[in-house]
Every structure is written in structure tokens, then in C-alpha cells.
């Protein structure tokens, strides 16, 4: 099944889906940067504090949307440092959006997007996040085929036997007696 999803005819479809997903992340980051003071400005963390308090409010009742463990983590770790997480999320969304649109460091961008979507879903936000999460998992499983129509393809593709970036060192055989203190091993000769 996965091989069928890596077929050359399907690669343009993955490129369109990857770019669309990147647009969603980039748009979310630009909205946060547009509301400058409450996300990354002087009042950084104000909006995130409200979001996290909403998550805590959903952790009680007969049909809680947020688990007690996640609520504890929100209360102990995320709320006290909301300003820091506001900046991390804003620039994380921006990096994921740019990475997915350009197809550069696609795997890293997908993992970052996956982690943020998981955090949003655990906080009780279930709008488009489950669909995005599912698409990101599928794209990670497919691997390099998703980045075929992107900068990763050009950076990591084997062009005429030479890689442009991150090429491995040439395979140079070591001499039998490369270390002066260690004698060369003697191998028994076979006679026919």
C-alpha cells in the first residue's frame, strides 16, 4: 500500500497536499504575528494563557474533553511559562509553514507540525487538527516521496552519482597495517 502511495504519478498530489498543509501553518503563524503584542510582543503569552485556561476548564465534568494528565501538565508546565510557549508556537508554525511550502527539511517540518497538532488536540481543540494530524502521519510514513516536488529533492537527489548536499565520505579501504603498534593479521593460504 505504501509503495502505491510513492508511485511517481502520485508525487504531484503529495506536493499539492504538502503545500496546502504548509499554507495552513503559515497562515496561522501570520495571524499570530498580526496580533503582535499578545503572541510575541510585550504581552506575549496573553492569548496562550486564555487558550490554556480554556483547556483546563474542559478537564472537568462528566464528559471531559481534556485528560487529567494533560491538564496537570498544562497547569504545572505550560501556564507558568505561557510567554515562552507563545513565541515557540508562533515561530514553530512559521517554520513548519515555510518548510512544507518549499519542501525543505520536510520531515522535520512534519514532525514539528505533528507535535503541535497533538498538543492542540490534547488541549481540547478538535477543529481541523485531527485531519491535519492524520495527513502528517501519512506523509511521514511515505517519506521522501512527499518532498519530491520540493527543495529536499534537489538537495538530496543523486545527480549523476554525486550528491549535492550531505554526501557520504568516499569508501577508502584501510591498509592492512595502518596502525604501527598492531601487526597485520596473517591469513592462512588455501591451496587447491
Automatic annotation (TrEMBL):
It comes from the Bacteria. The chain crosses the membrane at residues 12-30, 70-91, 98-120, 132-151. Keywords: Membrane, Transmembrane, Transmembrane helix. This is DoxX family protein.
Amino acid at each position: 500500500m505504501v509503495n502505491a502511495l510513492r508511485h511517481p504519478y502520485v508525487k504531484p498530489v503529495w506536493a499539492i497536499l504538502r503545500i496546502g498543509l504548509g499554507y495552513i501553518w503559515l497562515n496561522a503563524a501570520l495571524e499570530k504575528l498580526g496580533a503582535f503584542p499578545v503572541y510575541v510582543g510585550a504581552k506575549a503569552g496573553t492569548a496562550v494563557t486564555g487558550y490554556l485556561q480554556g483547556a483546563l476548564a474542559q478537564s472537568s465534568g462528566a464528559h471531559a474533553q481534556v485528560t487529567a494528565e494533560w491538564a496537570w501538565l498544562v497547569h504545572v508546565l505550560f501556564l507558568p511559562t505561557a510567554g515562552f510557549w507563545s513565541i515557540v508556537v508562533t515561530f514553530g508554525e512559521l517554520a513548519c509553514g515555510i518548510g512544507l511550502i518549499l519542501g525543505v527539511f520536510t520531515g522535520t517540518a512534519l514532525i514539528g507540525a505533528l507535535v503541535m497538532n497533538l498538543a492542540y488536540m490534547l488541549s481540547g481543540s478538535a477543529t481541523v487538527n485531527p485531519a491535519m494530524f492524520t495527513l502528517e502521519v501519512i506523509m511521514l510514513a511515505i517519506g521522501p516521496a512527499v518532498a519530491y516536488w520540493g527543495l529536499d529533492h534537489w538537495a538530496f537527489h543523486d545527480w549523476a552519482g554525486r550528491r549535492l548536499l550531505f554526501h557520504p565520505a568516499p569508501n577508502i579501504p584501510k591498509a592492512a597495517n595502518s596502525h604501527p603498534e598492531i601487526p597485520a593479521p596473517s591469513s592462512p593460504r588455501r591451496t587447491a
